[in-house]
Design brief:
Blueprint: E1 3-8, E2 13-17, H1 22-31, E3 38-42, H2 48-59, E4 63-67, E5 70-74, E6 82-83, H3 85-88, H4 98-105, E7 107-111, H5 124-132, E8 136-140, E9 143-147, E10 156-158, H6 164-174, E11 180-184, H7 190-201, E12 205-210, E13 213-217, E14 225-228, H8 233-245, E15 249-253, H9 261-269, E16 273-276, E17 280-284, E18 294-295, H10 307-315, E19 321-324, H11 334-340, E20 345-348, E21 351-354, E22 364-366, H12 370-381, E23 385-390, H13 393-396, H14 402-408, E24 412-416
Parallel strand pairs: 2-15, 3-14, 6-7, 10-11, 18-19, 22-23
Antiparallel strand pairs: 1-23, 1-24, 3-5, 4-5, 7-9, 8-9, 11-13, 12-13, 15-17, 16-17, 19-21, 20-21
Helix pairs in contact: 1-2, 1-7, 4-6, 5-6, 6-7, 8-10, 8-12, 10-12
The chain binds ligand EPZ.
Length: 417
């Protein structure tokens, strides 16, 4: 099993190019199932979850090839409507194929998904909302068996809770439904806006009609077109924190700074010096990091996907801080490993109390989920001596060439096979 070896302490200096967004690519790839034509996608990140989604699409009959970094998806002969456990077990976003398969064929069998162990992560909101479009379903032996005897029919749906995945699944499914669908209490993450932009580009008719409401007028078919996926704002946020935590000096490129306002604001408040341009950010980390209390929240709040990274940063702050995790009930898996490195973090319910002034000690560590893994890399970067991070397949699910990108800005980091 591959490991990462980090020799610290490191001070990062230079520029980092941010890759395409994993969490925007996944629903867009699923949405290509709606089409009977060719779709061309640019700026997909080279990460494991995207590979898994491509394999899932292939298993459903999509013909897929890369030509000069452009992914060409041809669904002319796509026929299979069964998404197997083998491909769904490692990636929760697999559930996003349910909506398009139902919209296109009127029936589908999709395995219940796996994914990062960060909470119970049910799919009840996806299923209840699809039922309102006319879907009948049952769960049997780990599979959702779903059918829409009269096809999908547009209606008004209010999500009981803000869910990124359920919003995406319903936007995709409603795009080919008969009539008009209004979705209320939608998630507003930039990745959802990217999905809507993609769908409108291939001929769908989707409009935001109020802050969390969207109107989808069903269309009969999807056009051939190309689309370039947005940048990965969580990857960008992670490297901004890497600069802040190592008192480094980084230029983060290929981004849209508007999508990072919350993170930039937090980093300024803890003492980093930041210069924002439209498509890049310059950050200089301060020697002294100020403590701050943070809460994760749906967009435009602090992303839960940056909570673990922020926690490592606050371990280095001058006083104690609190982070409240409001999205997932079990997203503190990194805490025990950080405490093994010398952090003093205690958990009470959904709050983590983080004592500041931590001097991390080098250790052999175990990655547990995607963002927890990267938080261990960040801690190791600040630590004197050699740290080893095991089980980095979690990291490879969502960070493109992380060790190469960090090495280019001066980190002593290496993959051990
Ligand atoms: C997406 O997951 C992201 N994944 C996650 O990123 C991210 O952490 C999360 O949104 C929140 O921002 C992708 O985009 C592929 P949710 P998703 O549905 O859609 C509960 C990463 O590290 N819920 O918004 O699964 C759920 O348990 C990953 O890149 C239900 O109760 O998240 C959670 O508490 C991990 N029933 C809350 O809603 C449902 O049917 C928000 O989950 C669906 C969700």
């Amino acid at each position: 099993m591959q490991k990462l070896e980090v020799f610290g302490p490191n001070k990062l200096k230079g520029k980092i190019d941010i890759s395409g967004s994993k969490n925007a690519s996944l629903p867009i790839l699923a949405a290509t199932l709606l089409s009977n034509r060719k779709i061309y996608l640019k700026n997909l990140p080279k990460v494991k979850d995207i590979e898994t989604m491509i394999n899932l699409l292939k298993s459903l009959g999509s013909k897929i090839k890369f030509k000069k970094k452009i992914l060409i998806i041809n669904n002319t002969k796509q026929t299979n409507k069964i998404a197997s456990y083998k491909l769904m077990k490692t990636m929760r976003a697999g559930i996003l194929v349910l909506g398009p398969l139902l919209a296109k064929f009127g029936h589908a069998k999709v395995s219940l998904p796996g994914g990062c162990a960060i909470g119970t992560r049910p799919i009840d909101i996806h299923l209840k909302s699809l039922a309102k479009l006319g879907v009948k379903y049952k769960i049997d032996q780990g599979y959702v068996h779903a059918m829409a005897p009269k096809g999908l029919v547009g209606t008004k749906i209010r999500f009981s809770k803000i869910s990124v995945g359920a919003t995406e699944n319903l936007i995709i499914a409603s795009s080919l439904a008969k009539g008009v669908t209004i979705l209320k209490n939608c998630a507003l993450e930039p990745e959802i806006k990217d999905l809507v932009n993609f769908l409108n580009k291939v001929g769908c008719n989707i409009k935001w009609i109020a802050k969390r409401s969207i109107k989808i007028s069903g269309v009969k078919e999807i056009n051939e077109n190309s689309y370039s996926i947005m940048f990965d704002r969580i990857e960008a946020g992670t490297y901004l924190i890497a600069a802040a935590i190592t008192a480094g000096n980084l230029r983060i490129k290929n981004i849209k700074s508007d999508f990072l306002k919350t993170e930039i604001d937090i980093l300024k408040r803890i003492g980093s010096k930041i210069k924002v341009k439209k498509n890049e950010i310059y950050i200089r980390g301060a020697k002294k990091i100020k403590s701050i209390n943070l809460k994760t929240a749906p967009w435009p709040g602090l992303a839960t996907d940056l909570q673990a990274q922020m926690m490592v940063l606050l371990c280095k702050a001058n006083k104690s801080s609190v982070i409240q995790e409001n999205i997932f009930e079990n997203r503190f898996m990194h805490v025990s490993e950080l405490n093994r490195m010398g952090a003093k973090i205690s958990i009470k319910g959904n709050k983590a109390l983080i004592n500041g002034n931590t001097k991390f000690a080098a250790a052999e560590l175990m990655a547990t989920d995607l963002r927890a893994s990267v938080s261990l890399v960040l801690a190791a970067l600040t630590t004197k001596g050699r740290s080893i991070i095991n089980r980095i397949y979690h990291l490879d699910r969502g960070y493109e060439s992380i060790e190469k990108k960090l090495r280019r800005v001066g980190a002593k980091i290496k993959r051990l096979k």
